[in-house]
Amino acid sequence: MIFSSATGHTHWLPSSSVFLVAALALLFPATADAQQQPAPPGPFAIDARGALVRLKPSGTTAGAIGVPESSLPGLGLGVDLGAHWYVLRSRKITLGVGASVLVSRGRETPTDEEGQPTGPTIETRFITIAPQVSLNFGTSRGWSYLSGGMGQSVFDSRLAETPVDNGRKARTINYGGGARWFAKPHLAFALDLRFYAVDGQAATDTLVATDRVTLMVFSLGVAFK
Asked: Which residues are bridge partners to 2 per DSSP?
């Protein structure tokens, strides 16, 4: 490449320098754009959500307790806490591992038209520890996921005055999905829809037998990273 100086002399600019200048001109904008790209999901997330549990009243359970099936709770309220770590992160799919703990309870007391009790209060508990492997889609600013795993749970219906028995646990498969949207760098709005397939359980001295059942849980709250 040729250019003229202020003295009128002609100089040559080596072609390698031209290529270097051009490469730098192309590199810096590309680097700036790359730095503006949001990172993959993670590197970790902690969830704190309120949960609504759709309980499935069982005629077998109701008969064993000695009440109509309509006397069993249909809904339960609880708290769903979780922690997840994203071990393989990429811009397309991120692999995560973690677990959630759900504690919930539903109570039902049959009443007449005037609101007076007509039968005993029945309590249904669902407490579960749910390990999960997740596939995550999106960026660190917000992502959706599909996840599943296997854990254990306490699930029973009983008369409210019956002593609590935490010794009986059932194998439980969980699967579902959800999303997190980060309005602030470390705080997100989070939701999750999950199904829990709970194995049937044999009767004990204080608890009646239960059938295999699948419970649906919708939880809503916040996430931190």
From this structure: 12
Domain ranges of the chain: 2-36, 44-224
Distance between CA atoms of 40 and 71, rounded to whole angstroms?
48
Residues 96-151 have pLDDT tens digits of: 999 999 999 999 998 878 878 888 999 999 999 999 999 999 999 999 999 999 99
- Whether 35 has a pLDDT exceeding 90, the answer reads no
Overall average pLDDT of the 46-53 stretch? 98
Residue 81 tokens, joined: 């806490």
**Apex CA 209: angle with CA 203 and CA 215, to 5°?**
135
Tell whether omega for the bond before 43 is within 30 degrees of 0, i.e. cis.
yes
Q: Which residues pair with 84 in a beta bridge?
A: 45, 98
Alpha-carbon distance of 116 to 109, in angstroms, equals 9
For the cut 90, the answer to whether the pLDDT of residue 7 exceeds it is no
Q: What's the rounded mean pLDDT across residues 47-69? A: 91
pTM above 0.85, yes or no: no
Residue 190 one-letter amino acid: A
* Residues paired with residue 131 on neighbouring β-strands, in sequence order: 99
Residue 75 belongs to what H/E stretch?
strand 75-88
Report residue 14 as tokens.
């080596």
* CATH among 3.90.550.10, 3.40.50.300, 3.30.200.20, 2.40.160.20 for 44-224: 2.40.160.20
DSSP symbols for 108-176: E--B-TTS-B-S--EEEEEEEEEEEEEEEEEETTEEEEEEEEEEEEEEEEEETTSPP-----EEEEEEE
